[in-house]
Amino acid sequence: MLSSQPLIHGFKTQIRLVPQSLREGESLSSFVDHQAQLWGLGRSALALQVSFLPAIMSLGDLDACRSDKFLNDYAELCGTNAAELQAARVNHPAILASQRSRHAYCPLCMREDLIRGETPYFRLDWARMLLSHCPSHRCPLFRWRECTSEGLRKLPHAWLIGEQAPAGEIHWYRDDLEKAVDYWRGLLPRTTESHAIWESLIAFESRLYKIGVGSPWYRSRGNSVGMETDIMQLAVRLVRPLEGDPEKSLIKTAQPEFEDHDVMAFTLRRHRDRTFNPSWRELRGTLTSLSCRRAVLAVVAQSFATKPLARNERIGEAV
Question: Is the pTM higher than 0.85?
């Protein structure tokens, strides 16, 4: 079995990882996390044993892995195609939540994985800062509760071998799944006002997704940065404390009244950051609450409702 201690030299080990293949839309961090849990290790501990120095280069953001050698060594050890791993590497990580904050997930997607007899996995799309719903099921993304300090999302042991978890093991997942199903079936939101807010947000996020704004594989150049930069700057202005008082931030007074505060509400209880002049980079690591982020995006969506997106339609096709 793998040692829990990292190597002290620059050569790859002769270990043989469990055979695995990258699934559709899977993030590299999810790919490595699955293997790490099979061995009972943390993400960093496993990566360092696969290829020590290249792993050090890559662990700052595994989804944007900076080392081809690490991906080549990893692919060789688990019997997969290195080119597929390289193609999954993002080139625009600034549009993702910070690595330790990529805990969003869709319960319905995970249920479908289990129905196929597969281990559920985390899609890279779920880590986008400008996407708070599942494009496949049009339901909210939820927070995965079991995460380590380095960002590894822990799955139940039964799931690692493609089985259903025993009843009662992850009650919060069942609660999330029930709510996701109600959104998917159109039973939620219930009130007319909340339904209109939700539809506006979904339409806005879907449009951004379609034209490539906020994509981790999309690198803006020149004037094409337009909408993405506008959205980032507006989000920062909404969250910035006014007169040094977080209670006076624009989002506190401008956020929509949504029926379910667990789905959409900006509260200082959930948003604990007290930076007086935040930047987008800081927001990636502090706007971790999906409820708070969704409230910010809903206000951004309202502000763009009267602005045409045509000038950005040429930025790129769905990426």
Answer: yes
